[in-house]
Amino acid sequence: MERVSVGALGEERLEKVRQGVRRERDAESGRPLSVAIMGQAGVGKSSLLNALFGTRLPVGDGKTGTCEPRCISVPGNSGHMLTFWDMPGMGESLAADPGYHAMYRDRLVESDVVIWALHADSASTGADARCLRALLAGADRQTRAELLAKLTVVLTKADTLTPPPWIFDMRGSHGAFLPSPALADRLSARAARFERAFLEPWADLLGAATYTTGEFAIGDDRLSFDGHAVRYRGHFSAEVCEAYRAAHPEHAEVFSRLRDDHRVLPCSALFRYNLVRLMAGVVNKLGPAAVFRFQRLLGDVTELARVPVEAMREYGNFLVWDGVRGVKAFDLARFPF
To answer: Cα 45–46–47 angle (5° rounding)?
Structure first.
């Protein structure tokens, strides 16, 4: 197609182009965002979706069981519709039963977002890794690459890892949970172990991409770029990220965002821990069309991390840091709310 400059269009034709783009954007933004979440029973899939999108999906033992993926449409934070694929029965039966593979794979391929939830306190990585292999085994190379490109892996229920303690950074009537340094190291080690078992075996199909300002220019066989995006071919591991950051510190933020594509992220729906980072990582993976839909339902993303002090008191005993007064608040009775 021949490229036409804006100046050659004329104001009338240019306005028609603008109107066409706006119509396409508005039509796309009105479509539901499709989210599929995978994981073993009990890892907190519905709780995570409720915390991220403000939905009220049923959680716990009261959920109705089903043998097939089930489509659920609900309004999100802003009233915008979300379509969730409830993917039950994932476990040893999925890895062993080829009849489920195509059914699950089709739902994942057509979804805008795919979240694979792993329990942060699990000692085994084998079951989920076998399920992923089973799902990808029957697909062609392009389909496998497309599915892996939209996959975000999280470690759920990070709040179950204690001790060391969690820290509650209190700011007035609300605050945010943070792991203590020792606990952060434990979570990081677990995330690295799951990344090695879950993503590293697919390195030849993996890729990472992020936006750029157009000033990025590095000659590298695995990197490609244009005025809008930077792409990496392969597994953008922590070691790869550090090597690029050391060689090209001026592009450290770009490499950090590429790293987020393959980072296994510990999170907690209860503590609302790392939900902002998870949302940012998901947005980075979305194509331009899906981004229109996603922006409509985000609202104020900073609210994802805020926990009321009154709710925090019911969760357990924590080290509380008064972020306004700059003191440790060991005795909450000293601080009336």
So the answer is: 95
How far CA 222 is from CA of 64, 78, 150, 219, in Å, comes to: 46, 40, 19, 9
C-beta of residue 50 within 8 angstroms of C-beta of residue 56: yes
* Closest-CA residue to 325 (of 118, 106, 170, 102): 170
- For 182-202, what is each residue's pLDDT tens digit? 999 999 999 999 999 999 999
* Distance (Å, whole) CA 102 – CA 107: 9
- CA distance linking residue 134 with residue 101, whole number of Å: 7
Q: How many residues does the chain have?
A: 337
Question: What's the rounded Cα separation, in Å, for the pair 136 and 214?
Answer: 35
Distance from C-alpha of 318 to C-alpha of 264, rounded to nearest angstrom? 25
pLDDT along the chain (337 residues), means of 10: 49 64 57 81 87 78 57 69 70 56 81 90 84 86 92 94 84 88 93 94 94 83 88 96 95 92 94 90 72 59 78 73 63 45
The CA distances from residue 88 to 105, 111, 133, 140, 204, in Å, are 13, 16, 17, 24, 29
207-211 β-sheet, strand order: 207-211, 229-233, 223-225
Q: Report the pLDDT value the prediction gives residue 207, as an integer from 0 to 100.
A: 94
pLDDT digits (tens, 9 = 90+) for 239-259: 999 999 999 999 999 999 999
CB–CB of 222/233 below 8 Å?
Answer: yes
How many whole angstroms separate alpha carbon 297 and alpha carbon 316?
32
Which backbone phi and psi does 104 adopt, to 5 degrees? -65, -45
Report pTM.
Answer: 0.80
Query: How far is it, in rounded angstroms, from Cα 163 to Cα 208?
Result: 35
What span, in angstroms and rounded, lies between the C-alpha atoms of 281 and 153? 10
